Amino acid sequence: MAGDTEQRSLFGEILDWMLAPLLVIWPISVALTWLVAQGIANRPYDRELGEMARNLGLQAASETPRAGSSARSRYALSPEAAALLRADEADTVYYQVLGLRGEFLSGDRQLPVPAADDPIVPWELHFRDDEVGSDTVRVAYLWVAPEGQAGSTQTMLVQVAETLGKRARLTNEIIKGVILPQFVILPLAVLLVWLALARGIAPLNDLQRRIRSRESSDLSPIDERRIPDEVAPLVRAINDLLGRLDQSIGAQKHFLADAAHQLKTPLAGLRTQAEFAQREIDEGRSEPAELRRSLQQIALSSQRAAHMVNQLLAMARAEDKEHAARRSEVNLSELAMETVRDFVPRAMDKRIDLGFEGPDDEHSALRINGHPLLIRELIRNLVDNALLYTPAHGTVTVRVVEDPFGQVTVLQVEDSGPGIPESEREQVFQPFYRALGTNVDGSGLGLAIVREIVQQHEAEITLDETRELRSGQAQEDGQGPGARFTVRFAAHPGRDALSAT
């Protein structure tokens, strides 16, 4: 596992992949050079050996029997020719002449004969490698038809062989002439590769120095004009990341500034009321009614501040992608019913009819795949927003239904409040935005939290009016067009199996 996490050098990696094949190819080059040198060294000596065998064959074919002479003496070389044949100081030369029936006529008996399956073609020269005793020899041989017997199928075998001393020396000289310069060229090639890589990597080092020299607050794009083409995609990706990081940091700064501004009002009111009560007590004018009013304002301001802090914490949880990724099977109808139950006392205080519509059977409960805490926070904020804007004697309905055609589970929260103008329906999901003229006390974070949770769960939210009003209808029943928030979650994969069960 340590090798997987070990940091590796790009320079070293490229150098390894360039030099490793070079070090593998070099022994192969030596072996090929030796084979080629051996072939080059054999060629002139084979030509010379073949000429000797051919001349000996011509002499043997032209010999005519003499009265009283034996076959040995008839085909034996003259002393001058034998001395010339064996005049080589470096190698030992052997020759042999066999008769028409394969009988030994002249030369060296220890020289082996060719294999029996070799084709016999008169006057065709052949070469082979063989052994005479402990010596390896190169043999040139041919079959000879004696003069006057051209149509006969019987031939004489003539062989001339020599040891490989001269050939080995010439092969070694050729190898030395080729291999020794490689011992100089190979280190020089390694050095040139090293310098070329160092020069090629230099723009990367310059890019590294430019990035390291930046201030931590500098999120401007990296200049792409002085970088290699191969690194350009990486730099563009870094620039894209820097741009998104700059936007994220800017959004966070804006959010913190808005949060500080929103917290300033309840905290200032809390301090003012506390100072006022303390001054009344110090001056001896602490009437119970005045103190009760100051304490009520203090409680209201602390409640607003606590609500703001809770909303900010909920927003932070909703934006935490790692936290939102921990999902499980969620019973949406059960969560919605529990949330409605928690808001019943508040709805009764405001004289609002709060209701729930959904499956009450456990087996028909609608389930989704999500984070239970975030889904509960989403429902709480939608219901809280509806109760906040719905006037007395209004209605708020939470509904959980199934859309079998779209394969989704639908959560709806609708109210009979003043509604939201179509021009502001996108803006209400922005943090700290509150519609003008509503005279409603709130933080402006509830719907922003809702949208963030919806995005984390790859769901969809839409906003429209609950009902269309005719002229004067709002004044007659005291209700507005209302607002309906509809959230569509992807159905849980195991819902069909649960329904079948």
Give the helix tally. Answer: 13
Low-confidence stretches: 65-69, 496-501
How many beta strands in the DSSP annotation?
12
Mean pLDDT: 77
What is the radius of gyration? 52 Å
* Major sheet summary line: 5 strands, antiparallel
Strand content bin = 15-25%
Q: Widest sheet: strand order?
A: 2-1-5-4-3
Computed structural class: alpha+beta
Helix content: 40-55%
Helix-strand pattern: HHHHEEEEEHHHHEHEEHEEHEHEH
Termini separation comes to: 46 Å
Which outline best applies?
A: rod-shaped
Features:
single chain, 501 residues, alpha+beta, five-stranded antiparallel β-sheet, five-stranded mixed β-sheet, 13 helices, 12 strands, 52% helix, 15% strand, rod-shaped, disordered C terminus
Description:
The chain has helices at 2-5, 10-62, 71-75, 79-85, 165-212, 232-282, 288-319, 321-324, 332-349, 372-389, 446-456, 473-477, 495-500, and strands spanning 93-98, 104-107, 126-132, 135-144, 156-163, 328-331, 353-357, 367-370, 395-403, 408-415, 460-464, 484-490. The protein is α+β, with helices and mostly antiparallel strands and 501 residues long. The strands form three sheets. The protein has a five-stranded antiparallel beta sheet. α2 (10-62) packs antiparallel against α5. The radius of gyration is 52 Å and the shape is rod-shaped. Mean pLDDT is 77; it is low at 65-69 and 496-501.
